[in-house]
Amino acid sequence: MMQTTVKLQTEKTPRIGLVELPALKLIDPNGIQRNECSQYGPLLSKQILLASLQAGGFDAQLVNLRSGNYEEEYGTVMWNGMLISKRYLGKPISSIDPQSFDAWGVTNNYMQYRDLAFMVIRHLASGGKPIVVGGSDAIADPDLYLQAGATAIVTDKSGGANWSVFDYVLGRQMREPISGVILADGTRYQLRLPPMHPQDWPLPSLDVVKQCLGREYWAPEGEISILPMGSVFVDLGCDRKCDFCQTPTYGTGYRRMSTERTLEWLALQKDAGAKSVISYSDQFLGRVLFNEGRQEVLDIMKGVREMELPILWANGLEIRKATLGRGYDRHSEDLTPDYELVEALWGWDGKVGCYEAYIPAERPIFGRESYAKLLPWQQHCEMLRAIVRAGVPNIYYGVILGLPEDSQETMLRLEEAFWELSEELKTINPATNFCLSPFSIRPIPGTPQGQNIRSSGLLRFEDPAIVGEFMTACADTHYMTYEEVADWQFRLACIGNKNLTGVGQMAKGVREKAAV
Q1: Which of 154, 181, 405, 449 is deepest in the core (most CB within 10 A)?
Q2: How far apart are CA 70 and CA 92, in angstroms?
């Protein structure tokens, strides 16, 4: 049943501070930034969480530590023969009054931000108010967050635990049984069944959307502008079970908003002043597995164009699902691009459509076995040709390096194939900005890949700022050191980036994959 706005009249409205962590910078001795510092990205998870808690009768407010110019070094780590400075950027953590709210909410989806999350939690804990922590990294290693001072860890990614956990930690009358939570004393409450459906997420107010807008470098007229950018997350979960990903462990299944609800979220971004919108959906094209899903995609994209909202696919679209066979079965017979679907998703006319797309190529040639969603190389290249013909101006082509079997020979073969593909795509559309985004493996706790890398003895670091960051290789392969993997990251990043001069610039434009 859909949650509705609730206001308990018999007691004071509890005030909840939802903390956005400061931005992270990794700086080497030459001043080169070794990660992407996404200080001004849209605050997607806060937009959804603020709307949920406010609909539940809580006075939930954003406390944005990412906004500001304060910078502080909080540690160092040796990496690739260099002493890397770990810094945070935004507002001082100490600037928060730990007693200024009745309860706190902290979200951390990324391992590289773990130490910063602990610093924030410890500071807040000094005020004696309950602290509820959620996010992918907290779910992966909840005990560490409890040791840092969290009162409760939310393990329910669907949003179904939001009201009950804050009712519980605030000592209020429970409106529904607590679920999907781990408490400080070790008590675990099972996930709610069925999970909350994204269709039932409360819509945010315009004020919330405005607070959560990001900034985007966007140049439809050929001149660089900094414009407000909205964000949406219109489905939950994934039908795949790739061994590198946490999503299959969340127990949500795959659930999608209706076309009408999706367009409501998009319209709110437009009404709040967004000049473009970024989609962080885990599996937007998962809806094509349903009979009516293909038409849903076409209708949603038609609505996006009618709103004149350029869209960016930050988390990537599974290109196998844009084939005539829809790509669910690895042995699907028809892997021909669905050209109408391709045009709808990646088409650009200079004003509306898809302005920027991340393509999750992962390992399109060698190492495909780890990624069930991938197309065979020949069909993969044909799909890329179709996408470029659709006109999308900016393509970030994400590949994963550092698989256990990677060697100098396989890297050379990958490099040759990527150069050939890049040159061919530029021939089709010289205006296309095709940039390779080579990521190193991140052994995420709780995933099969993370477990295998740790048990293999190949992992060379434990520092979460290194292990959790795509741009800093952290593991050897059976045939290469992590330093050699890092060298290959820089070398492959030069494909499509002819003016590249450092790994910090290599990271420019590469988008973090967000999760709610």
Answers
A1: 154
A2: 6
Question: Starting from the edge strand earliest in sequence, which strands make up the sheet with 188-189, in order?
Answer: 59-64, 15-20, 103-107, 131-134, 152-154, 181-183, 188-189
CA gap 79, 317 in Å, rounded: 33
Residue 20 DSSP code: E
Instruction: Specify the pTM.
Output: 0.91
| 384: its two tokens | 């890329």
The Cα 138–Cα 21 span in angstroms is 14
Could you read off the pLDDT of 419-432 as tens digits, one per residue? 999 999 999 999 99
**First-to-final CA distance of the chain:** 21
Rounded to whole angstroms, the Cα distance separating 143 from 34 reads 29
Please give the Cα distance from 444 to 465 (Å, whole number).
12
Whether residue 32 contacts residue 39, with contact meaning beta carbons closer than 8 Å, is answered with: no
For β-strands 82-90 and 70-79, DSSP reports them as antiparallel
Alpha-carbon torsion, ordered 419, 425, 428, 431, to 10 deg:
-100
Quick: pLDDT tens for 81-104: 999 999 999 999 999 999 999 999
- Pick the closest to residue 100 from 129, 134, 120 (CA basis): 129
> Is 81 in a helix, a strand, or coil?
coil
Beta bridge partners of 353: 348
